[in-house]
């Protein structure tokens, strides 16, 4: 039995609405990436807009700026991983209960 075209279109529209809602929530949600036991913290949204970098004074050693640079990169990478995981989870959760026909999955 073939799926009803109206039901299929409703499912696709519902999926689009749920994805837009999830994207909006990701834009508002934030994650923190840290390095060096919290001496460097980076804040970004779920859609990878970096908002803040916080560096505690004990992280600054002018004779070893390379260490500070490494800590900042580590914090950015940590925040990016967390934002990506949050996005994947949000997208998967938004699609629960949406019945798309076989082959129309969204691949996450």
Task: Describe this entry's structure for a reader.
This protein is α+β, with helices and mostly antiparallel strands. It has a domain of 65 residues: Nucleoid-associated protein YbaB-like domain (Ybab, Chain: A, 2-Layer Sandwich), CATH 3.30.1310.10. 50% of the residues lie in helices and 17% in strands. The protein has a three-stranded antiparallel β-sheet with strand order 1-2-3. α1 packs antiparallel against α2. The longest helix has 30 residues. It is rod-shaped, with a radius of gyration of 20 Å. The two termini are 27 Å apart.
The end-to-end span amounts to 27 Å
Lateral arrangement of strands in the main beta sheet: 1-2-3
Strand count: 3
- Average pLDDT across residues? 86
Instruction: Examine the coordinates and then state which fold CATH places here, giving the name of the CATH topology of the domain at 30-94.
Output: Ybab, Chain: A
Task: Tell me which CATH architecture of the domain at 30-94 applies here.
Answer: 2-Layer Sandwich
| Radius of gyration over all CA atoms, rounded | 20 Å
Give the CATH level 1 class of the domain at 30-94: Alpha Beta
Structure annotation, total helices = 2
Task: List low-pLDDT spans.
Answer: none
Q: Biggest β-sheet, characterized?
A: 3 strands, antiparallel
Shape: rod-shaped
């Amino acid at each position: 039995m073939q799926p009803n075209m109206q039901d299929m279109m409703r499912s696709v529209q519902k999926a689009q609405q749920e994805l837009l809602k999830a994207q909006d929530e990701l834009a508002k949600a934030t994650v923190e990436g840290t390095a060096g036991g919290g001496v460097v913290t980076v804040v970004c949204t779920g859609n990878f807009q970096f908002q803040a970098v916080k560096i505690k004074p004990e992280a600054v050693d002018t004779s070893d700026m390379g260490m500070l640079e490494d800590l900042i990169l580590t914090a950015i990478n940590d925040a990016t991983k967390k934002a990506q995981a949050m996005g994947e989870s949000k997208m998967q959760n938004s699609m629960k209960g949406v019945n798309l026909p076989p082959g129309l999955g969204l691949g996450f």
